[in-house]
Amino acid sequence: MTQPSLRERRRTAATREIVDAAERHIAEHGPAALSLRAVARSLGMTVQALYHYFPSRDALVTVLVTKAYDDLADAVQAAVDSPADGPPLPRLVIAAEGYRNWATSHPERFQLLYGTPLRGYAAPADGPTTQAMRRMSAIFEHEMFGGFTQEQLAAAETSALSPALRTYLEQLPHYGLGHLPPAATALLLSSWGHLHGLVVLEVFGHSSFLGEHQGEMFRGAIQNLLDDVNRRIPAPASHA
To answer: Where are the CATH 1.10.10 domain residues in the chain?
Structure first.
């Protein structure tokens, strides 16, 4: 295997240093304040020198968003894979708590992903940010539905889906289990909206009135959500 050249190693190190500086800047000033000039100034570089590594703000933002999604997915997967500490919990609840813990520990980076879109920024179509987001989707999809058959998922109880919506959901790509029937996709999307909404409320300070009880409320809400999903999926058919 060919070893990277000295020039390549230096470029890799410089790129990592720029990304780290940008993350610090976001943590201190929020995503909206990000600029190449501010990052360059924090590193004692000129903007022109920084352009050798990132030709535009959007190029840097794409790397930052991709890394944030990957770090978030790593935290969720690590939570699911860690030995149980205390009473056993369903893996989906553990995954959700891993998601919440990362978000509340890195609120500015979470806002970069899910807050007000940065003015003028558009992620590359089907680019690295999309690939990183799909990895997150795959984890939750697997933990929610991994124990069910396709027949069970197809028979899941949901509100009536119009033919147009059913066709649209049928065509959506999935990344954790391959294909999901429309009913299961509808359950996944509504569950994701509930889970994510609770985290957004906390990160943006809208549930602070709960104080130290926010974690307990979150766990109970996700357990209730999972119980509801499981009630909507029928038991496997008997072939006796």
So the answer is: 1-55
Unique residue bearing structure tokens 């813990």 = 101
pLDDT tens digits, one per residue of 54-89 = 999 999 999 999 999 999 999 999 999 988 777 789
Residue with tokens 């007000």: 116
- Measure the CA–CA gap between 187 and 195, rounded to whole angstroms: 12
For 1-55, which CATH class?
A: mainly alpha
Instruction: Give the position of tokens 């990052």.
Output: 39
* Residue range 180-192, pLDDT digits in tens: 899 999 999 999 9
CA distance 133 to 192: 13
Q: What is the CATH number of domain 66-232?
A: 1.10.357.10
